Amino acid sequence: MRIAIYAGIFKKDQDGATKTIYRLIHSLLLAGIQVGVWGFSITPQKRRGLGLVTVPSLPLFFYRDYRVAFPSGRVMKSLKDFAPDLIHITVPDLVGAAFHRFAKINRIPTYATYHTRFPAYLKYYRMGFLTRLAWKTAVRFYRGIEAVYAPTEMAAQELRSRGLTNVKIWSRGVDQDRYRPSFRSPELRGRLAGDRRFIILYSGRLVWFKDIHIFAQVYDLYQAYAPGEVQFVLAGDGPARRTLEKRMPDAVFTGYLNGQDLSEVYASSDLLLFPSVTESFGNVVHEALASGVPAVVADQGGCQEIIEKSGGGLVARSGDADDFFSKCRSLLEDPRLYSEKKRSARNYLKGRSWESVNEELIKDLVQLGGRSALPAPVPLRPPALPERR
């Protein structure tokens, strides 16, 4: 079985969406499925059964980490040569539309994964007037494919409320070897916070559509209410960093982290404050909970569903810095509540591995591709796709 995936960005640990696709592709390869990946930003790699194709693109003027991709003749020929049994689209852009047309012409089943409430980004770039059109375009695209996989019931319901009837759930796992309380480091806490009692962490891209202005406002409230008690740490990078560094002079900016460095920062913190309303899920919340760190999240977007199901934190009113501040204080100043949230999250995450959630999706994809079952995994020849140089 061969699956062609248009991923857009396929850079290792770039963000929650790319982490999710990385884990899915790992599971597909282990299941003996050959995978071709097309994207405009790709981490070069060689794995048996995996082929990569770089798609031409131009950067967006308002956020150069994202790009407008183009379906060139070379790109479409590589898709034809790959001869997929299934096509997976993660971005409903020009290339995604071209892949969909190719699938319809060649009668290839197609599915999409819904990772981000991307129309919600527009208001952060003073283009909110385009939000309705963006949703209309996305729904038209999603309506024409066999299945759309959303990560939470909240995200699925949002899509269904817009008239889509082909929505299914593909949840998310967490790597509990990589994110666990045992990575807590007193030495790192000392370097980050000195003698301050608590560390409040933000993890993710430093971009305004993550509502990090709320994080900065909570910082201000703590500076006024309890100066010297809480150290604010931002693990990540992005175009808003320079402004935030001026705005939050006492905060620690670690820059982009991965591997054990990220694991230790999570486990060495006391609370994750993640105010974003544009998430369809929120992998960073899973990572914090697995690290033994409760979270305070917004009541819009997918993060709230994680907290409501896990009991691993508190939910604050979106856009309300005072309420976020109040929820942070409630957790940090009540040891009994704090311990209860940690225990509840640990119980919720038992068995929520990437392997288990991806196994369920792969069963679905096998049927979607017209197969009754997958053969036993065997060594595979890599797909005949051009390697990125």
What descriptive keywords fit this protein?
389 residues; alpha/beta; Rossmann fold; 7-stranded parallel beta sheet; 6-stranded parallel beta sheet; 14 helices
Please give a structural write-up:
It is a single chain. With 389 residues, the chain is an alpha/beta fold. It is 40% helix and 20% strand. The protein has two domains: 2-173 and 353-368, Glycogen Phosphorylase B (Rossmann fold); 181-349, 3-Layer(aba) Sandwich (Rossmann fold), CATH 3.40.50. The protein has helices at 16-30, 73-82, 94-105, 131-143, 153-160, 186-193, 212-225, 241-247, 259-267, 283-290, 303-310, 321-332, 335-349, 354-368; strands at 2-10, 34-42, 50-54, 57-60, 63-69, 86-89, 110-113, 147-150, 167-169, 198-203, 230-235, 252-255, 271-274, 295-298, 313-316. A seven-stranded parallel β-sheet has the order 3-2-1-6-7-8-9, with helices on both faces. β6, α3 (94-105) and β7 (110-113) form a beta-alpha-beta unit. α7 (212-225) packs across α12. It is globular and about 65 Å long. The relative contact order is 0.14.
Which structural class is indicated by helix and strand composition? alpha/beta
**How would you characterize the largest beta sheet?**
7 strands, parallel
Q: Label the CATH architecture of the largest domain.
A: 3-Layer(aba) Sandwich
Distance separating the two termini: 26 Å
CATH first level of the largest domain: Alpha Beta
What average pLDDT do the residues reach? 88
What overall geometry do the principal axes of the alpha carbons give?
Answer: globular
Which segments are poorly predicted (pLDDT under 50) over 5 or more consecutive residues?
A: 375-389
Cα gyration radius (Å): 21 Å
CATH superfamily of the largest domain: Glycogen Phosphorylase B
If helices are DSSP runs of H or I spanning 4 or more residues, what is the number of helices? 14
Oligomer: single chain
Our count of domains comes out at 2
* Spatial order of the strands forming the largest sheet: 3-2-1-6-7-8-9
The tally of strands reads 15
